[in-house]
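User: Structure please.
Assistant: Input sequence and predicted structure:
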Amino acid sequence: MKLNHVKKIPLLIALLLLIPAFWNQSPVSVSAASPAFTQSKVTIVGEDEDYQMVIANKVSGSKYKWSTSKKTVAKVSGNGLVTAVGKGKATIKCKITYPSKKTKTISAAVTVKIPATGIEINNAKKVNGAHVLTINEQYNFNRDISPSGSSDKTYWSIGGGDEECISIDSSSSGIVTARKAGKVTLVATAAEKATAEAAANSSVSDAIIIEVVEPTATVRSAEIIGSTQIKV
């Protein structure tokens, strides 16, 4: 029995030597998350509409200074309230000064979109209710969009009648070429993009009748009935 006690002594000494090593280990430190915007990309739709920027992980006692890269697009208040001014893109920045006097600047990209509320084809020359073109004649139709600062595009399309009467050079422009005699409706639609998909989701449009004639033909009266029919 005495021999067993002697064998255990070195083991006990080894364990006692290990205890200080574990005792003196430093606790693992976890650094606090740095302040940042909860949204780094923001889209505001409509003039004078507001968006409140929010900073996560604020450090108590810090000071905040706000700025905008383009005041004609968006302005920002002293507490981070962003107001849309006009269409375009701007960068909103906030300079944070910590209690230690160290600083950090965070930023967010802001896009302002101004939807159109009205559109009108402004240079049609109507004779008996229709703009007249002779075969092979080309004409560049234009439009007014309201508000004038709208970010919407214009999509040009054929709305009814004989689609073979004209060709539209580009859906994003109003350049039309007369192809054959007949009547057709030309539609200008204000939409976020100059695409058929975007135009289908828009209710802001204007339309005119185009009558394509032979060089010596007489123009008859015409009017638009509904959105796709022409009354002669």
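The radius of gyration is 35 Å.
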